[in-house]
Design a protein that fits this description.
Layout (H helix, E strand, L loop, with lengths): L15 H46 L7 H35 L2 H33 L1
Helix pairs in contact: 1-2, 2-3
């Protein structure tokens, strides 16, 4: 029994109503991603401007923190980079879904859904890590 590569998984098609709902979802995702880009830019600016000040401030409370200052700032930049990548994925989803629906191009549409899938995977990992952290504080 040979499988047809052109056959869809569930034989679902995007009709007019589903297309409109996806376009509206893409609009909201674009808005949220633009706000996220602004937030990530402000975080980078705050890290760049206040990073040294925060190290000197915390060194008064915790005298040995200056040894770890570079590592703490590096970890903060990594977190901001991951958040920036997530915002980029959300923006990519919004633009590719809208373009895929308007041009009726299945590969562009699928690329948009793939960006959303990766966004949800990263969000899920952060949610699980957050739950584990909160659970560990109970004991």
């Amino acid at each position: 029994m040979e499988e047809n590569p052109q056959e869809t998984l569930l034989s679902l098609n995007v009709d007019y109503d589903a297309g409109n709902i996806l376009k509206e979802t893409a609009r909201w995702a674009k808005f949220i991603s633009i706000v996220g880009i602004i937030g990530v830019a402000l975080m980078l600016l705050a890290l760049a401007l206040a990073g040294n000040y925060m190290v000197t401030l915390y060194s008064r409370m915790f005298p040995g923190i200056q040894v770890f200052a570079g590592a703490i700032i590096f970890i903060a930049f990594i977190v901001v980079a991951i958040l920036g990548f997530m915002v980029f994925l959300l923006y990519r989803f919004s633009t590719l879904i809208k373009k895929g629906i308007e041009t009726q191009d299945q590969s562009i549409f699928n690329d948009g859904l793939n960006a959303l899938k990766i966004y949800f995977i990263i969000s899920g990992v952060f949610a699980i890590l957050s739950l584990l952290e909160n659970f560990s504080k109970l004991f």
